[in-house]
Amino acid sequence: MKREPKAWYSARTFYRWLTWKNRPYEERVVLFRARSLDEAVELAERESAAYAAESGFEVLDMVQAYRISEGDEEMGAGTEVFSVLHALDLSADEFLDRYDSGPAHTQSSE
Fold it and tell me: Model confidence over 3-59: pLDDT tens digits?
């Protein structure tokens, strides 16, 4: 039986910070090598649980995965790592208002 080659996938996971004022929500996009979308989701769920456990976060029950490559293609500047379409009957301003969550807290990984 021929095994599928591993491709690059990104997975978007969601959390609730339990120890920070106002208990903000966090979205993360993390890269994985997997042979299928299902395997990528499984890897993301495991990584997500470990990330939340070490930080005291609540894991929210949703993973969105996205296949980035067909195999070993090189990734670099400009590589699309995640995309989602929203089929909503909203004007552009209404859409942006709906997804603007207020002041964002960002952090460098350096």
Answer: 677 899 999 999 998 887 778 888 999 999 999 999 999 999 999 999 999 988 999
From CA 93, how far away is CA 82, in angstroms rounded?
22
- The answer to whether the beta carbons of residues 58 and 18 sit under 8 Å apart is yes
Characterize the bridge pairing of strands 57-67 and 25-34.
unpaired
Q: What is the pLDDT of residues 68-109, one digit of tens each?
A: 988 777 888 888 888 877 788 888 888 888 877 666 665 655
Listing DSSP states for 32-94 in one string gives EEESSHHHHHHHHHHHHHHHHHHHTEEEEEEEEEEE--SSS----TT-------------HHH
Q: Is the dihedral of CA 84, 105, 16, 31 positive or negative?
A: positive
Closest by Cα among 4, 54, 13 to 31: 13
Does residue 32 contact residue 44 with C-beta atoms inside 8 Å? Answer: yes
